[in-house]
UniProtKB/TrEMBL annotation, chains A, B:
SUPFAM superfamilies in the record: PLP-dependent transferases
Recorded family membership: Belongs to the class-III pyridoxal-phosphate-dependent aminotransferase family.
Annotated source species: Lodderomyces beijingensis
Protein's recorded name: 4-aminobutyrate aminotransferase
EC number: 2.6.1.19
Domain of life: Eukaryota
Essential cofactor(s): pyridoxal 5'-phosphate
Keyword terms of this UniProt record: Aminotransferase, Pyridoxal phosphate, Transferase
Catalytic activity: 4-aminobutanoate + 2-oxoglutarate = succinate semialdehyde + L-glutamate
Xref: PANTHER family: 4-AMINOBUTYRATE AMINOTRANSFERASE, MITOCHONDRIAL, AMINOTRANSFERASE
Keyword Metal-binding: no
Amino acid sequence: MLRIPKPSYRFVRSISTKYFPNEPSAPVFTTSSVPGPKSKQINQELGEVYDNGATYFVADYFQSIGNYISDADGNKLLDVYCQISSIPLGYNNPKLIEAAKSDEMVSAIVNRPALACFPQSNYKDILEQGLLAAAPPGMTKIWTSLSGSDANETAYKAAFMYQHAKLRKGADFTAEELSSVMDNKTPGASEMVILSFDKGFHGRTFGALATTRSKAIHKLDIPAFPWPKAPFPQLKYPLEEFAAENRQEEQRCLDELENIIVNSPKQIAAAIVEPVQSEGGDNHASSFFFQGLRDITAKHGILFIVDEVQTGVGATGKFWAHEHWNLTSPPDMVTFSKKFQAAGFYFGNGDLQPKQPFRQFNTWCGDPTKAILAKAIYQEIKASDLVTRTATVGNYLYQGLQTVVSKSQGKFLNLRGENYGTFIAWDCCSVEVRAKVLQACKDLGLNMGACGDLSIRLRPTLLFEKKHADVFLNILEEAVGKV
Amino acid sequence: MLRIPKPSYRFVRSISTKYFPNEPSAPVFTTSSVPGPKSKQINQELGEVYDNGATYFVADYFQSIGNYISDADGNKLLDVYCQISSIPLGYNNPKLIEAAKSDEMVSAIVNRPALACFPQSNYKDILEQGLLAAAPPGMTKIWTSLSGSDANETAYKAAFMYQHAKLRKGADFTAEELSSVMDNKTPGASEMVILSFDKGFHGRTFGALATTRSKAIHKLDIPAFPWPKAPFPQLKYPLEEFAAENRQEEQRCLDELENIIVNSPKQIAAAIVEPVQSEGGDNHASSFFFQGLRDITAKHGILFIVDEVQTGVGATGKFWAHEHWNLTSPPDMVTFSKKFQAAGFYFGNGDLQPKQPFRQFNTWCGDPTKAILAKAIYQEIKASDLVTRTATVGNYLYQGLQTVVSKSQGKFLNLRGENYGTFIAWDCCSVEVRAKVLQACKDLGLNMGACGDLSIRLRPTLLFEKKHADVFLNILEEAVGKV
């Protein structure tokens, strides 16, 4: 059994029991391995009609509770992956069930509006009590969409339209623009570009995918725009040991970024970056780097988009991860999805809204059911102070992981995410070790996720507490010992 | 008052009263014009935080019922636009409310899965009792997504991956592919193209938008792939008068299509077409043309995608509009969204599913709440035989419109959609007349939608019946008389 280091601060009393009086105190097993036979059987049948090549296991969501996900066989696993960073308040959270059963939700389900044409009379209220109440500092406006990819693409569209409007200086579209665009040609179609960073992930639709640089398998055989990428710092750990080298590496990346900008054959409409590159391997950078990004983009008239699809909504110990940076001026747009269920982007500058209607437009323009859910999520996060709690438990978890890593005989390394809530990750010494650890953990009742080439990332709920951290640390230490 | 032509067949008894005993029998007015002052006020406030440039009026969905939409002032308008062709079974349909309140729905709302990683144990059942039960002939598999744009883009991705896999003949990715794709360059990034048709509309995300050719305002200032477009027939009306010319026009378009294919500098992975080009102006073509498309694409190894986002789910008097064509072999993929709320594409050929996992992939891979709603929608359509009913009332509506058009003194022309259910449209003699007619109709309690340069399109619910058609025809005749 792992000796958990004595925490150096007093813990706030558990609040997860308020939500989940029947949450198990440890994993529950019905089969010796996960996935069990029933899960396998169901998945095989599903494969007859649906692409099931990426299935880890088939879940029974009716039996899942709090931080524990049930598989179809009835095994209950502590879940620190949470539908790829998406379950904010645990499975079957009673407050969200209440929201799901509300008249407001039922109406939004059966009377789904084309929001930009026939908005519902309470849409502003829904936004103001939820998504907008949660808006990052300096951001007063919102565009709602359907997914992280969609959020990023609409942000890109806003950027392109904004930059062209600036160049046009109030003039109307030219006849040549109006005709050439119908053939997908310039000048009507834009030659401008979006800059993203090596190892970044911004989604899978064609525009988003052109900025995604995580892995080849995400991109192969799909047409891509000729858009530039800049290097993202590769930091060395532990940070305190490599402070000088890391600063140098971040400066190198900033210099190279400015070099790319100055030499770009095409105007760069916007640059997009994740606070922590998640799919790409949970790569962090410091506030120094991000302040540099903000300054360089501002200097060159490039819009600065922060993709908080994965980092947003509390997991990093701030509501928005970019609040860690203390930027001297806010980003131009911040995109979100996942834990908020609703997706979209925030902005402050009204000029990011095109002057003509039907340009930033589509049939749904989001989904009020998700905005209603986001409202409930936000209100619960505030009421129970879950961001502070996540920061606190994250520190505890990080300390425990330092011990596990130090005892792992080199199998684990590069622990990262200190003072970053539960948004923690580390590397394994090889792909094989990682696969074995993940499977051993599953068999011991812990569901974790991989990212990048060698990393394991933690993405628990905002109701993940000390007691869950203890279960987690014990299983992880047992698993790594077995590998 | 309009004299409705005596219908030549006996009408089936109304079924909408079963669903909506309290549906008004005519529009209800609380203000002299629509939008009323409250709607305007709310919309102005919404504009402070949200792009409201395209708002027609603010709706009160709690007060909307059946075929009548309520605005924020309490006016109740007969709705033949239906959230841009999306409300399948009327506002506040009790059977959909039942589905919305079900345990299955509540669970899917609060425990939203990453479907391709942790599918819920009953997902296959949900699909088989809904979306898959409704699948077009010859299509046994499904990919679920979030919107029409997303449905089309995932179909394009499937097409690109399929065509490259064919060229690769089972070989693995090359080192050059794996590295070049990370720079968005060939050979890893594809140079293949998707062919679409002049005036087609396939969505707003970057890949979808590159195939959209409806209007410049949809595309301006957004980067576009250099993908080809082919001409879509411009038919003359009434069809029986121009049979020979229209056949010639369709043959011209087919010839030109084949010419484009043969001379294309890049391999065409797929061609996409709408059965009726909706945003582009409700442009129809005959079965002859679509059979030609199927034959030419098959001959050249090009996948044939039918975009039924707007035409699907019964409105044309068949469940899928392409069933009107009696094709000798089914399309390769059929995309859907809107009336089904759920979105995605159907296919029959298992090779359209990439061999490697995580290629056709994203976090959500659709939304089970929408699949559950689609199940309820499908089951109600079947139970109440709503496709047949829509075909019947569509004929009645069409006959009535022939009278309105003939009496319009040239203000209306080119009526189209005979034997195509309620999927009917006509042109106005000018943009000004169209705008005036649409406003006059709103003020008389009828909500209609425009499309293309001069057209008005009808997109009522599947519970739109003779009594609604009578209200509609009377208002329309009164409105056109006023203009």
